[in-house]
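Researcher: We're teaching a course module on how sequence relates to structure. For the next exercise, students receive a sequence and then see the predicted structure as tokens, so they can try to spot secondary structure elements on their own. Here is the exercise chain.
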Amino acid sequence: MSGTEVTIRIAGPSDAETIYAFIVQLAIYEREPDAVETNPDALRVQLASDAPPFECLIAERFGVPLGFALFFQSYSTWRGLPGIYLEDLFVTEAERGNGIGTMLLATLATLTLDRGGARLEWSVLDWNQPSIDFYQHLEAEIRRDWIPCRLSGKALHALAGESRLPHLAGQRKTVEV
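Model: And here is the predicted structure for the students to work with:
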């Protein structure tokens, strides 16, 4: 069932529990059930801050959450324009195939253009063929020439320790971790 009874809205701090529940469901779907380290309180505080680190759309039918899209602003140095990076897209299993993912992405595409953005980007796990097929159906370019990189945990802290070199003295704000 899809159609006009589904609404897409921007999430606020009061949606922290719903967002958290979707994050947990996504982690389970992505075979990382123990990877979630955040909690609803942290999400609530972040969404209520003057400069939230992310935004979120929630798809719902008659007030029942069906899916979400968590995103933040990106920037293209080559184009000199902002964009949107979609961190997470998730639709409940019962609602997949009903057009909700397309509605969430279409809303993000509209937000990207309304904000003067040049592109909407995201990553997909290489084993997630249903999602790859969905994105290709939307004519998204599947970039296999770029390899995502990530620093976190001990490696992030180790590299940050290197930035305490004399050439950066006075330019770096120390953050307690």
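Model: If you want an answer key for the exercise: The mean pLDDT is 91. The two ends are 46 Å apart (CA to CA).
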